[in-house]
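If you are new to this repository, start here. Below is one unmodified record pulled from the training split, so you can see the exact layout before writing a loader.
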Amino acid sequence: MKKLLKVIIVSLFSILIMSGCALNSPKPYSKNVTFFKLHLSKKEIRNTIIALGKKDGWYMTGFDDNKVIAEKINGKTSTVVTITYSSNSYYLKPNNSDLQNTLDSVLAD
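And here is the target side for that same chain:
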């Protein structure tokens, strides 16, 4: 009887700890999501992002179905930003205010 009681107590304690940890798990990073003011197809979104970046001096490379990699070289330093987009929003990782402002000027709601 004592052995069964110990097993029950340990099991309940384990369940409480696991459920508490699962509810409080940190997010890997926060997304600064910007929603579109225009209704565009994914191809139009990709082409618009690439055109805006190139106009502002970024090297733009399409990657996967929903990502564009933006690179900018300033003297000896370079900046690389991944732009992930969907049909209604996009976000930059890591955040870059220059590129964000360029995209927001046309796309942001």
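Two things worth knowing about this chain: The helical segments are 2-23, 42-55, 97-107. Confidence is low (pLDDT under 50) at residues 24-31.
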